[in-house]
Amino acid sequence: MRRALALAAEASAAGEVPVGAVVLDEDGAVLGEGRNRRELDHDPSAHAEIVAMREAARRIGSWNLEGCTLVVTLEPCVMCAGALLQARVSRLVFGAWDEKAGAAGSMYDVVRDRRLPYRAEVVGGVREDDAQALLRAFFEARR
């Protein structure tokens, strides 16, 4: 989570919503990392999680990230929750809960929905205060 928080801080410095993500293999080695890049790339799908999963998939030469852990500073949205299931990510670890758009237990629970063919383990609230502080500072500076 430390690296994801650093990536979130980089996103904030670049004028992006401060979210950072890291994909780890089963041994804890970093396969991919990302931060929000929607403004920079003019890409609505350039959320930190998507960027990190794309890098991890390229690195291992497969879309299938089974056995991997996605660590992200903010609870994933519906798009990112769906993408991590499509990538077969086994575990999701996140910092701050997102009561407005979260899809891993807050607003929705896409990641653990029993109606879907694949589910991921979810661990939320890891370094939540640190993740929330980055988000709070970012949005307060824009008000």
Description:
It is a single chain. This protein is α/β, with parallel strands linked by helices and 143 residues long. 36% of the residues lie in helices and 18% in strands. It has a five-stranded mixed β-sheet. Helix 1 (2-13) runs parallel beside helix 5. The protein is globular.
End-to-end separation: 28 Å
How many beta strands in the DSSP annotation? 5
Largest sheet at a glance? 5 strands, mixed
Strand content: 15-25%
- Low-pLDDT runs: none
Number of helices: 5
Structural class: alpha/beta
List the helices and strands and how they pair.
Layout: H1 2-13, E1 20-24, E2 30-35, H2 38-41, H3 48-60, E3 69-74, H4 78-86, E4 91-96, E5 121-123, H5 128-141
Parallel strand pairs: 3-4, 4-5
Antiparallel strand pairs: 1-2, 1-3
Helix pairs in contact: 1-5
Pick out its properties.
143 residues; alpha/beta; 5 strands; globular
What would you say about this model in short?
The protein is α/β, with parallel strands linked by helices and 143 residues long. The protein has five helices and five strands, in the order αββααβαββα. A hairpin with a 5-residue loop joins strand 1 and strand 2.
